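Quick entry between incubations.
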Amino acid sequence: MIRTLKTAALVLTVAILLPGLANAAGYPNKTITFICPYSAGGGGDTSSRMIAKLAGDIMGVKINVENKTGGGATIGIGAVSKAKPDGYTVGFVSTSPITIRPHMMKAPYHPLNDLTYISQFVASNQPLVVKADSPFKSLQDVISYAKANPGKLKWSTSVQRGGPHVAVEAMFKADGAKATFVPFKGGSKVLAALLGGTIDVAMISEGNKATLDGQTRILAEGTPMKNPVTPGAPILTDAGYPIAPAIFFGIAGPAGLPKEVLDKWDEVMAKVVKSEEFKALAAARKWTLDFAGHAEFTKTVKRDYMAAKTTIADIGMK
Amino acid sequence: MDLILEGLSLSLTLESLLAISIGVAAGQILGAIPGLTASMAVALLIPYSFYFSPWIGIPMLLGMFKGSFFGASTTAILIRTPGTPAAAATVLDGYPLAQKGKGAKAMKMALYSSVFGDTFSDICLIFFASLLALVALSFGPAEYTVLIVLALGSLGMLSSRPAWKGVVAMLMGVTIGMIGLDPITATERLTFGNPELEEGIGLIPMLIGFLAVSEVFRQMDDSTDELSGRAINFSSKREDNRVSWPEFRGCIPVLFRSSMLGTIIGAMPGLGATVAAFIAYGEARRTSKKPEEFGKGSLEGIAAPEAANNAVSGSNLIPLLAFGIPGDIAAALILGAFMIQGINVGPLAFSQNPVPLYAIYGALILANLVNLALGFGLVRVSRFVFKVPRRMLLASVLIIASAGSYALRGSIFDIQLVFIFGVLGFIMMRYGFPTVPLLIGFILMPLLEENLRTVLLLASTYDEGILFVFKRPAFLAMTALLISIASYIGWRRRRHRRAELPTTDS
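Done. Structure below.
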C-alpha cells in the first residue's frame, strides 16, 4: 500500500515537473494555438492550416488551428491581442481588419499598440479590371466617363470597406468623379456581376486569372506590387492617387512578444514559403508569395495604417 | 473520343474507386454530424491533398461532397437534426414519416432522390455546361428578385391555419434574418453593439436550435416510461421499410422538376443548396395532387428537397468549369484542389486540355453509384444506432448540437444561440405556430432584401430608372414565368371552387 502511494507520489511529481523542465528547452516546446479569424474553407483558413502544418513540422511541435470568426475578423484578432505574449498563441491577420477597418469601427484592439507583427507570407494583387469587350481601354477612360456621367459608372470590390474599396473611392474623389459602388459578397460574385454586365469596373484579385482566361482587361493595380499579368498597368499611387494599400496575409501575436519568438518565426517562415507545398498552394490560389520578416512587416503595417487614416478621414468613409 | 476515353481511364481505376468510396463514406458520416460540414472536412484535408495523386485526391473530394448531402438527411429524418442546412427542408416531411415508424422508407426515399438529383445535374453539367453557364450569367439582382418572389409565392401556400400565426412566424424569421450588417450600406442593424452579432445569426446554430433542440425539449415533457423506450421505432412491416415501385413512380415528376430547379439554382453563384431545397419543396407542394399530405410525411415532400439540394452540388461546377467562378464554398475548395494539382479550370480548359474534365465527369458519375451503394449501409447502421433508449438519445442530441455549433466558428455565443432558438422553437410548437414560415423568413427574405435593394441602387444609375430591368431579356423571361404561374394558380382555384359548389349545396 505504502509502496503504491510512494510510486503514485513519484509519478505525480514527475508529471508536475516535466512541463517545467521542457519549458527550459527554448521556444517552442509545446503546442501552439493558431487563431484563424475566418471560417473554414476561405483563403485565410487554407493558408493558416498549411502554415500550421509546415511550420509545425519544422519546429517539431503541434500547431492547432482554431477558427474564431465574427465581427469582420476582429473577434479572432481581438482574441490574439489579449493572449499571453509567450508565443504560444498567434494568429492569422490580413489587410482589412488591421490597416483599414479600425478607422471606421470600434475594433477590440489597437492595430499598432496591441499586436506584434511576426511575418507576412503572401501579398496579393488587386487589379482594376473591366470586361474584355468594354469600351474602357485605360484608367483615364474610366475616370473621364465617371466625370462626364456622375453616378452612372457601377463598380465593386470583393469586400465592402476593405482596402481596395477605400483605394478606388479615394481615386474617384481625387479626380472629382462620382461613381456608384454596388456591394456583392465575395470576389467570385463580383466577377460574375462584371461578366454579366451588372457592373462596369471591379477591383478584385480574381482579375488576374480572368485576364489570363481572356475574360477581362486590367487597367490599373491597387496595391504597391507590380501586376504580373499586365506589367504596364499603373499602380494607383504612381498614377497620382492617394492610396494603394498592400493586401497581405500575415501572422501576428499579442503585443510584447519576446525577441526569441520573433527570430524563430522569421527563420521558420522563410523556410515555409520556400517549400514545394506552400508554393503549390500559392500558385493554385494565385497568391504572390512575398515573404517579409518581423521588421519589414511591421513597417508595412505602420505605413498603410497611417496612410489609410488620412485617406479615410479625407473621403469621409464610415 | 480518344480524349474522352483517356479522361475516363484516369478516373475509372481501382484506386480512384477506393478513393471515392472513402470520400463518400466520410462525407456521409460528417454530413450526419451537425456543424461538421463537408466544406470544413475538405478544408482540413487541403494541406494534405498535395501529397495525393490528382486522380485520387479529387475523386475523394467529389465523393465527400456528394456523400455529405445524404448523410445530413438521415439525421434530419430520424432526429429532426439537419446535419447541414441544406437538409432543413427534409425535416418537414422526413421526421413525421420516421415518427410513424417509417424511418427506413423515408431514408431510402431520400437516398434515391439524392442520387437522382446528383445524376441529373451531372448529366446537365456534362452536356449543357456552357449553355447553362450563359443562362446563369445573364441572371443579375433583378432576376434573382423575381426568382425569390416566385419561391415565396409557392411557399406562401404552406401557411397553416390560422393565418395570423403564419404571419407572426414569418415576421419573426425576417427580424432574426435582419440582424447583422445592412446588405447595401454595411451599417449594423439590431446588433445592440455586440460584435458577435455583426455577421448575423448563423444558419447552423439557428437551424439546430430551432429544429432539433426544440424537439428535445418537447420530448422531455413525456413520461419516464416513454423515455425509456426505444429512441426511434422502426416498423417491422416490410412495406414500411422500403420504397415500392408505384411509390417511386409517383415521385418521378417531382424528382425531375426538383432536379431541374436545383440544377438551375446551382448554376447561379449566390443562392445555394438550402434555398434550392426550400424552393423545390414549395414547388412540389404547389403541383402535388395530394398537397394536404405535406408536412405529415409525404414522400414527395422528401423527394423534392433531396433531389434539389443534390442537384446543386453538381451544377455548382458549371460556373466553375465555364468561367472559373466557383458557385459556393464547396466549388471554391474543389477549384483550389484542382489548381494545387496544376489542373486549369475555366473557359480555356475545354479547348486547351479537356482530358481532366472528362476524368472529373467519370468520377462524378462513379461517385453517384458509390453513394447509392453505401447509402444502404448507412440506413442499416442508423437503424441499429437508434435502438438506444430515447432518454439517452435526447441527451446526446443536446451534446452534439452544442459541439457542432461550437466547432463551426469556435464561438461560445453560438452555443447560447442554439439554446435560445431551442426555447423559441419549443414555445412556438407549444402554441401551434408553424415552422416553415419562420425558416423562409430567415433564409429567403434576407436574399430578397439584398437583391431588391441592389436593383434599386442600380436603378439610380440609369436614365430610365427602375425601368432598366425591362431591357434585360432574362428579367422579361422570369416575369413572364411568374405571371403565367400566378394566373394558372388563380384559374385552378376558381375551377376548384366551382367544383366544390354542389357539395356545399347538399
